[in-house]
Design a protein that fits this description.
Distance between the termini: 62 Å
Structural class: mainly alpha
Helix content: over 70%
Number of helices: 18
Number of strands: 0
Radius of gyration: 27 Å
């Protein structure tokens, strides 16, 4: 065979490699289909995901108990029963105050509108401009309509909060499914890790796989437990402060502050706005009422700027832009439940990125300032 007839090996192999642009198109299609799949399967994926993070949070504690002779199934059962009892107790204790608050929402709205009349002089130019567009009667209609809408909708606000996740199964059934799944995950012990060792082919792959799952478990557990303790402290401080300032139902505000603070940035803003709304509608003095949202904002600022960096550490800090992106995406996917799960999911992705070389750039973007991967920290510590 002549040299002219000899096939070009590079030309033969070139048909096996897709073009870079084609690969990006396939990746984009895969991401879009994944987003639709997450939305379509939310009724199944949501309780499983919540159970997964609950199991990750308590797995290190259960493992330590197992080393001391306590069976994993017993520790898992005790944890889940305790969590369910705590949830039922909170629902029972706060059910009446929340119902009363919702029932009084129209009165709060009307008082809030009346208190804001002191700003009429400040808003006079805007009112004059609006008067050129519509009559005075038509301008007053939105306030009346808002009160009527809130009066009609307030009894169903709680139902809307539960239904906003977008799935049709009963909320109680979802909670039970989550608890049972989490209990089985925790009670399985190290079965998943044993299966992982058997499946991976080489010894180096086995070591790397175990290192990844242990780091995910350890950092997610540390993050959720630390944030929970910090939020508990913030809730107690908010409750004590509101009690001293004369705010109604300070214990309810303590619980709300605890829950809101699981949603970075957005939760604090919503808490300040809600506290300001109720305070303005409650107190006669507007200047005194403004102390309530100011105190809430100050406590959140102290927690965010001083307490969290000290106890959470640099390695567990996240990029604020990435947090907002994940909050938006998972709220769009799974509603309120997705909002609560956004940061733990982000933490999991960040930990995975620290162990996979091809995802190192993404991990750098997701992490906060001065972030160091485990490998970098190890090399810095070595002599």
């Amino acid at each position: 065979m002549s040299s002219a007839e000899t096939p070009d090996s590079s030309a033969v192999g070139s048909y096996d490699r897709p073009a870079p642009g084609y690969s990006r198109i396939l990746l984009g299609i895969l991401l879009i289909l994944s987003a639709f799949a997450l939305d379509f399967a939310r009724e199944f994926l949501l309780p499983v995901t919540m159970a997964f993070f609950i199991a990750l949070t308590f797995r290190p504690i259960i493992r330590k108990a197992s080393k001391k002779g306590v069976p994993a199934w017993l520790s898992a059962t005790v944890f889940m029963v305790s969590l369910m009892l705590l949830a039922v107790t909170l629902i029972y204790a706060l059910g009446a105050p929340i119902t009363a608050f919702i029932a009084e929402a129209p009165q709060y709205t009307q008082k809030f509108i009346e208190r804001l009349h002191v700003f009429n002089d400040w808003l006079k130019p805007l009112t004059t401009f609006a008067g050129q567009i519509a009559t005075t009667d038509k301008i007053a209609e939105p306030s009346v309509q808002a009160a009527e809408i809130l009066t009609t909708a307030s009894p169903s606000l709680m139902n809307y909060a539960f239904q906003s996740a977008g799935y049709s199964v009963n909320v109680g059934a979802t909670i039970v499914l989550t608890a049972v799944t989490a209990a089985f995950m925790m009670a399985s012990g190290d079965l998943f890790y044993e299966k992982l060792i058997r499946v991976l082919p080489t010894l180096s792959d086995k070591k790397r796989g175990l290192r990844i799952v242990y780091d995910v478990e350890g950092e997610i557990s540390a993050y959720i437990l630390t944030v929970s303790v910090i939020n508990l402290g913030l809730g107690i401080c908010v409750g004590i402060t509101f009690f001293a300032l004369g705010m109604p139902m300070p214990y309810l505000w303590a619980v709300l502050a605890f829950i809101f603070n699981f949603i970075p940035y957005v939760g604090a803003v919503f808490g300040v706005l809600l506290a300001g709304f109720v305070a303005i509608a409650t107190f006669d003095s507007l200047s005194y009422a403004m102390l309530i949202p100011a105190a809430y904002a100050l406590l959140n600022a102290l927690e965010n700027q001083f307490v969290t960096p000290v106890f959470l550490g640099r390695r567990l800090q996240l990029n604020s832009v990435a947090i907002l992106i994940f909050l938006t995406f998972w709220t769009w996917e799974w509603g309120i439940a997705g909002t609560m799960l956004a940061v733990p999911i982000l933490m999991t992705v960040k930990v995975l990125c620290s162990h996979i070389a091809s995802m190192a750039a993404l991990g750098e973007f997701l992490s906060g300032p001065h972030y160091k991967t485990p490998e970098t920290e190890t090399s810095d510590a070595s002599p």
